[in-house]
Design brief:
Blueprint (H helix, E strand, L loop, with lengths): L2 H5 L1 H17 L4 H9 L7 E4 L4 H6 L6 H8 L4 E2 L6 E10 L2 E13 L2 E7 L5 H8 L15 H7 L5 H10 L18
Antiparallel strand pairs: 1-3, 2-3, 3-4, 4-5
GO molecular function, one term: protein-macromolecule adaptor activity
Subcellular location: Cell outer membrane
Subunit structure: Part of the Bam complex.
């Protein structure tokens, strides 16, 4: 036995444990692999660029100034030094459990006025928000109103003898005043 293992028995124990762990890895069944695949690390949501909606694209009209386009779409993600009359709007989103999305819109100017625009078909704001919701939806919607029969289950049961006892047990207190005196003394 090597001298280092004689001096440090915990090192020998660690080496044996590592050997057993490595040999056990090859014996995973499909069930075990499935269970391990279900345990995934958290992946950060990555959103880049400007989301441009269908409503924003419909608001664009040829002849608009650069400032008007910027007010509708926001500042472009890409501005090219060599193509000063072109603005590129790129939007990407990568989320766990959802297919990555990428959309592009390019706006072209002639001088200071909007000439044309082209790009992917954009979703409406409502459609886009619906794609962000990754919760599983059940097919059944529970009833939100109770029937008369269900309400009767929760109605308080009136017992005239208990009502009489409650009123008799309560001391006769004077009625409360109609108005309360001011909090601060008048000076």
């Amino acid at each position: 036995m090597p001298a280092i293992l004689q001096r440090r028995p915990w090192l020998l124990a660690a080496a044996v444990a590592a050997t057993f762990c490595l040999s056990a890895c090859s014996g995973f069944s499909d069930r075990t692999r499935g269970a391990l695949a279900a345990i995934t690390p958290y992946k950060v949501e990555v959103v880049q660029g400007n989301f441009v909606s269908k409503e924003q694209v419909e608001a664009l009209k040829p002849g608009m100034s650069r400032q008007q386009v910027r007010e509708i779409l926001g500042t472009s993600l890409l501005t090219d030094v060599f193509h000063k009359d072109r603005w590129d709007y790129v939007f990407t989103i990568k989320r766990q459990g959802v297919d990555p999305q990428e959309r592009r819109l390019t706006v072209f100017f002639k001088g200071e006025l909007l000439d044309r625009f082209e790009g992917d078909s954009m979703p409406s704001e409502e459609e886009f928000v619906a794609t962000l919701d990754t919760r599983k939806k059940s097919g059944k919607v529970p009833p939100l109103e109770a029937s008369e029969e269900e309400l009767k289950k929760f109605a308080p049961k009136e017992d005239s003898s208990k009502k009489a006892e409650a009123t008799a047990a309560a001391p006769n207190l004077p009625p409360l005043p109609a108005a309360y005196p001011p909090l601060e003394a008048a000076r």
